[in-house]
Amino acid sequence: MSATKSKTKSQIWTIEGNKIRSRSDDITTEEPLEIRLVSPAQTLAVTMRTPGADFDLVAGFLYSEGVITSREDIAKMSYCVDPDVDGEQRQNIINVALKRGLTFDFKRLERHFFTSSACGVCGKASIESLKMREIPPISSDFNVKPEIIYNLSEQLQLAQGLFSATGGLHAAALFDESGKLLKLREDVGRHNALDKLIGSSVLTDDLPLAHHIVMVSGRSSFEILQKCIVAGVPILCAVSAPSSLAVEMAQAFNITLIGFLRGLRFNVYSGIERIESVF
User: Which positions are catalytic residues (predicted)?
Assistant: First the structure.
């Protein structure tokens, strides 16, 4: 766990009507995280993230991008110990040593040299990128009743501790087939929150997530779908709408994509056969 805090205090002024008051408020921390490869020495990516669960984030990123296929592919992860780097900034650099003999296409990761926390590499990838990696469609026969889906949104909101404190974070949550919340990760970026969630499962050898549901705050984009497909997630739910490319991805890889999950209502954009008692 990074020593850097996930939230910071800031003085703010609240103006309401003809009144103004000053107070201290919690603000979501956003800082860069550099992912460095030890051998050969090079930077794999830099992303703006909320400090916390940094090793999960790195493992999830490496897994989603096809650099690793399991926890055993990571020999070691550690924060920077370079004495030439400012002490506080060392917590924003993670060195990764891969398993001896492991190779990958570094050129495929060049698009990630700088990744924003908000939108990743929007529009720069396509369905073909996954097909070229020979990622198979989701074959899980997992299905759920609508009543289980209805309960996910409230559970996600209640579990978002940092969001409650700051109002400025996205979340990704993992549920089992009964709709029980198993884990949740938060970050200023949607993609980072999902990488943290998937990475935590990489590090505990719990992949693929063939009998689980993932729910994300915000919308479903191409990269959100990509990460879920690589992790073997059969059902993805989101609070808001999916993008057109996200729908195409869901259809092409047989994932059940749910959007606008709010209260006792949701839309199914792909894979409705996994929702029981619909027909």
Answer: 119 (cysteine persulfide intermediate)
